[in-house]
Amino acid sequence: MFKAHIEIKLKKGVVDPEGKNIEKTLHLLGFDTVKSVHSQKVIVVELDAASKEDAAAKVGEMCKRLLTNPVTHDYTVVIS
Amino acid sequence: MRTIKKYFEGKGRNPTNIELQSLGQAWSEHCCYKSSKPVLRKFLFGLNQPYVIDKGDAGVVEFDDDNAYAIRIESHNHPSAIEPYGGAATGIGGIIRDILCMGAKPIALADPLFFGPLDAPLDSVPEGIKHPKYLVSGVVSGIRDYGNRVGVPTIAGSVTFDESYVGNCLVNVACVGIAKKSQLVTNSAKNEGDALILVGGHTGRDGIHGANFASVEITSETEEQDRGSVQLGDPITKEPVIHVCVECAKKGLLTGMKDLGAGGLSCVTGELCLKGGFGAEVHLDRVPLKEADMAPWEIWVSESQERMMLAVKEENVQKVLDICNLWDVSAIPLGNAIKDKVTRIYYHGKKIFELDLDFLTEGPEYERPCNLPSAPIMEEAKKAKAAKPRKFGTYGEALLALLADFNVCCRDWVIRQYDHEVQGRTVIKPLQGKMNANGPGDATVLKPVEDSYRGLALSIASSPFTTAIDPYKGGLAVIDEMCRNLAAVGAMPHSYTNCLNFGNPEKPERFGVFHEAVRGLGDASRAMSLPCPSGNVSFYNESHNGAIKPTISVLGAGIVDDVRKCVTTDLKCAGNSIYLLGETREDFGGSVYSRITGRDGGVSPIDLENLKSGVAATVNAIRSGCVAACHDLSDGGLAVALAEMCLGGSIGAEVNLGALGALPTDAKLFAESATRWLFEVKTGEEKRFEAAMKGLMLFRIGTVGGESLTVADGKKQAVCENVETLRKAWAEPLWNVMG
Amino acid sequence: MKVSDAKVCILQIEGTNCDEETYWAFKRLGADPEVVHLKQLIGTGIPHGMKRSLSDYQCLIFPGGFSAGDYVRAGAIFAARMKATLAKELRTFIGAGYPVGGICNGFQIMVELGVLPGLGESMTPLPEAILDKNDSDRYECRPTLLKHESRGNCVFTSKLPQNKVVMIPCAHAEGKLAFPKKEGDRIVEKLIENDQIVFRYVDEDGNYAGYPWCPNGAIYNIAGICNPAGNVFGLMPHPERAFHRFQHPDWTRTGLGESGEGENGDGKVIFESALDYIGKKF
User: Can you tell me the ipTM of this complex?
Assistant: First the structure.
């Protein structure tokens, strides 16, 4: 069995309201040293596959078909 | 314990673990009201009206010839103090189930919330207690994410800030549903042999001992230890469960239905069957589990969310299962209603539990020692005044400070996060006036039935500041505020549901406060002929710095004959006249002005006959069409109410309070005397309006118009502030603190 | 065909929650709407009597809500399930010119399905746009004013004059229409050229304005678009919540409409237009 660690983040330059909002709130709470905050999402998938490459291909397909929207998202997959 | 010992001696055997756990749940304060019942019986249980149809998990009240509404409020205080997001969300889930199991479709949510001050310095909050800002943000998000996702609009509520809630915030949640009378369901099985079908979420270790947990004081160790007691909400399991239950009720497939709340299966099974005059036989190994290794007693008392128990006639079981299957909702026949009034539990064929139902569900009842307070309670009256009084150069400055107070300022930060329009029934919205002016509303009005203009008005009220000083008057004040709010949109008060949040009832002086507040509530309800078909008691709301302010919160329901006649609070048109109804005195006890400036004064008296005639006259005047706007006077008194009417309409007003007599000007502006309303009357309709108010204390005080709110007292100018200046003070505080 | 024969499929899965008011919008106008669960169209694992076929309907609506909790991304799960099981039927339905509408979450589903903006083909393999988190990072339940900009292409607004401003309330956390970076301007140009921009957010004076008048920060203030053929339409605000005048936020100020207009709310014309189109074309 393989474990795929998928990190989905916004493409460079895409506005990140969630990150901005957290940043603002941290500042409000007195964490003055916070320089920036970016949000991203991690999804962990456990799957059976013939090989690591096969697993990576399947997970890539999942990302395309459901987990990301190519208009704003970049993603990285680490298989273990 | 002695009662339990005697019972099992009589049976000639020792109790099993699961039997003891079950009794612990069923006899907790949360499930059987062992402390509060004698007081409730004395003052509230007698409140009834012929149009009340049922008093089950929710009260059911006639709406019109064919339809009924279901109404209930409940506390979810302790879980929300530990884990605000999950606690509030599951509170919403629970209250929706209470409505659902009467066969009604949930159509409205309303939440009175109480927190510590938002500007409390971080280091002033004791170890192990969450900062109010974090709690507000978590609770509001929890309500938003759950309510919005299940598609039930959150249409009313309140947010109140006070020192006494720092260690023990209050999260009260209310829900209203609508049903054809013919599709109403009771919380009882009807026939011997009725199948008991467990519907909805799987059962896990979440929420084990929630009922007991709701009945202890919070200490600093509570936080980490008790995480296991807070349940996780799952609106997307719940949403289809709503569809399933409403559809089964509509098709007449159910004989009874009850939700799994406090105490889980252990409470619901017995109560559902006993109420119908039966016992129950249950196969516990059939319960679908989240974790495979759960012990039978854990399954029996688990409070996992999103579960309902249906009682179904044998011939309808398959039809119910088909509906559940369409929605991918798990539905498992667990057992049946049986003739003997006992609960028998089997686990893999072996009998592990047998208790007489009367014994299990009856629960003990205590006559708690009670020290009745002598009002006013001086210590509280002193505490209610500002410790560091602020002085203002002008009344205008004082008004701006009041508008910016966290207990007065604009609530749009909260309200716009809640979907208050889903289902399309919201005719009078929680925010009123010009688009994006966010004027406050007194009550929200829904149009629940497709082919009728009849409306249901809903409003939240509470009075912790006055109840703390004078519990009896505080009890009266809640009903006064609720009736004022409903009347202000043109609705006749019809019924209400109450949540009584108090401290530890084992302390006689606390129990005395409870006794007096409930007495006030009962007296006011009787005078207004208001039934109270459901309610909830939450005791033990105490932490490091003592008990919370005694807090009665109510959701009131009123009836509007035709929603098209309703009015809102925003001023409409330059030239219209402004009237004040009701008497103003130096009533500063518990007022916002006194909390800021330290001004002396007593708690407002309430004349219930006067309230009754004021409500009737207000509703009649609005129905007759001569009123353009109406707003009740509450926090901050007359000046704040006037300012709010200007803000919603983005228009000024010119007012003179000379007619109010020889009172000090600050009392005319800021006193919080009860039973008062402001009206904007359409030009040319003054005679008709005055006739409708005949015999009441009515003052014509000014005219709508201009860009400023100008208030004079006789020849003295008291306030002159531009509406946009008022808006800045009032609109920004929550945004500035909450981001 | 007669409007009373027009069968409208209001499609839902778990978490869809605006089905009832959408049903009533069509029902009040005399059409024959039915709320249908996606499983009834897919047809497996349910009793025979519950099965339905898309080809039995003349109009398909994706109502608002939080389909499947919107847990991956708003609308993504509904779209993925539909694409995996009913892609062919949907393509045929759209190709035949039947009106397909999406409101709020329905709009999100249609974008994720690739049927809107539908620039390349009727259903693109990957989404061409996204309805992203609001700039405020908040759920926004507020009235919005929309300027009708369609020059006549969109079948859902055929009875609404061009440039008329209507009040339709919104309620969403993810309504910011966005296109791939650097291509935004080009795509907007293309949408204008194809007459695909139906509604844009404006303020009280009819000007394109920022927050709160535009509640989400959408590109070019776009609130609703249609496909190049005009029969597929998605809109973030909720017209079914403004069917009657007394659902408007300020009706106690503005009155319940002059005689003739009766108690019509601004959203009613959307449903009327769709039914009018069906009546004339089929």
Answer: 0.96
